[in-house]
Amino acid sequence: MDRLRNYDIVFSGQRNGRHEFQFEIDKAFFQLFDTEQEFTEPKIVADVLMDKHTTFLEVNIKTSGTVNLVCDITNENFTHPIENELNVLVKFGAEYDDSEEDVITIPMTDHAFNIAQLIYEVVMLAIPMKKISPNISEEDLEILEKFSPKDETQEEPQSDPRWEALKKLKDKN
Questions:
Q1: CB of 60 within 8 A of CB of 87?
Q2: Which helix (H) or strand (E) holds 138?
Q3: Closest to 55 (Cα-Cα) out of 29, 27, 91, 87
Q4: DSSP string over 1-36
Q5: Could you give the CA distance from residue 47 to residue 56 in angstroms, rounded to a whole number?
Q6: pLDDT tens digits, residue range 117-167?
Q7: Please, what is the Cα angle at 82 between 45 and 137, to 5 degrees?
C-alpha cells in the first residue's frame, strides 16, 4: 500500500466542512495496479471533494480527460474523452469493509483514506465496451453490416403432448 500513499486523503486534523484535492492520473498511476489496460496515454484529472462531518466523510470523485483507444472495427487509434463521477460515504467502524456499493467503512483508528482504488474504478467504468472510432467511414460500416450475422427468428418448438399431460398431473397435486 506504500506505493499508493500519494493518493491518501488525510482527514485527521482537518476541520469539518469541504476540502478539495486534485490528482493527475497518467500511465504511472495505472502501473501501480497489476492489470492490463485497454487504453494508452491517459491524461486524466481527478477532482476529489471531501465533505468532513463528525462521524463520516462524504467523498465525491469527478474524473475528466482523455485516453487513446484502438477501434474494434478499423484497428486505428483514436482519442476518447473520459468523464465519470462517483459519490461514496465513508464511515468509521471496527474494521475495513467495502461490501456495500456506496458505503465504505474504515477503522476508527485511521487518519487517512486512500482513494487510489476508487479513482481506478471510476476511470475503468468510463471506458466503453465497444470501442468505435468517431472517424469510421460509411464504407467500413456497410462492410461490417454485410458480414454481420443476421437475426433469424426461430419458432418455438412444439411441446411434447406427453409432457403437457404430466404437467397437468403435477398441477392437480
A1: yes
A2: helix 138-147
A3: 91
A4: -GGGGGGEEE-TTPPSEEEEEEEEE-HHHHHTSSS-
A5: 20
A6: 999 999 999 998 888 888 888 887 787 788 777 776 666 667 777 778 778
A7: 145
